Amino acid sequence: MSATSSVIACESCGRRNRVPAVARGIPQCAQCHAPLPWMADADATTFDAVADSSKVAVLLDLWAPWCGPCRTVSPALERLARSNAGRVKLVKVNVDVAPTIAERFGVRGIPTLIVLRRGAVVARQTGASPEPALRAWLDGALRGADQPAGPV
């Protein structure tokens, strides 16, 4: 799997924009300059570039295609990424394809959701939850992720 781009429709004006998996800044609409939802897949070879180098908090979804709860929670995570455009990047990692990433984060069950800031774990939860619970968890994690870290 390589770090590719996706085409996302702007929530503000409807213009379709190509959003790269890896970028130096935060993706914005070419027409109205509103922040765009940022969603990308990663594997062991692309994870550092896609997730660790992100300028915004990363919502990491460690999942597998055979996992029913993983498939259930995925649309809710995409809606959360859309509603938090400019604040969060959703990065999905298939643990069957990238077991080293699962090992790196000590994953024992899936789906495992982790919020990262500059590669550091800010919050984590395992299992599928209803969207309102996920939203509350993410909002709390983002408040913590927005706090300035120690010296860089």
Your description of this structure?
It is a single chain. It contains four helices and seven strands. The protein is an alpha/beta fold and 152 residues long. It has one domain: 3-Layer(aba) Sandwich (Glutaredoxin). A five-stranded mixed β-sheet has the order 3-5-4-6-7. A two-stranded antiparallel ribbon has the order 1-2. Helix 2 crosses helix 4. The longest helix is centred in the middle third of the chain and has 16 residues. The chain starts with a strand and ends in a 6-residue tail after the last helix. The C terminus is likely disordered.
* Uncertain residue segments: 148-152
CATH architecture type: 3-Layer(aba) Sandwich
Report the C-alpha radius of gyration, rounded.
Answer: 15 Å
CATH level 3 topology: Glutaredoxin
What share of residues is helical? 25-40%
Order of helices and strands: EEEHEHEHEEH
- Report mean pLDDT, rounded to a whole number: 91
- Describe the global form: globular
Work out the helix count. Answer: 4
Count the domains: 1
The total count of strands amounts to 7
Main pleated sheet = 5 strands, mixed
Strand adjacency order, main sheet: 3-5-4-6-7
What is the straight-line distance between the termini?
31 Å
